[in-house]
Amino acid sequence: MESPRDREGMARFGINPNNTLGVSIYKLRPMATEIRRSCDDCHSLAQELWASGIHEARILAVFVDDPKLVTEKQMDSWAKDFDSWDVCDQACTSLFDQSPLAWKTVKKWAARDEEFVKRGAFALIAGLAWHNKKAKDSDFDGFFPIIKRASTDERNYIRKAVNWALRNIGKRNLNLNRKAISCAKEIQKLDSKAARWIAADALRELQSEAKQEMLKSKEK
Question: How far apart are CA 198 and CA 189, in angstroms?
Answer without folding.
Answer: 11
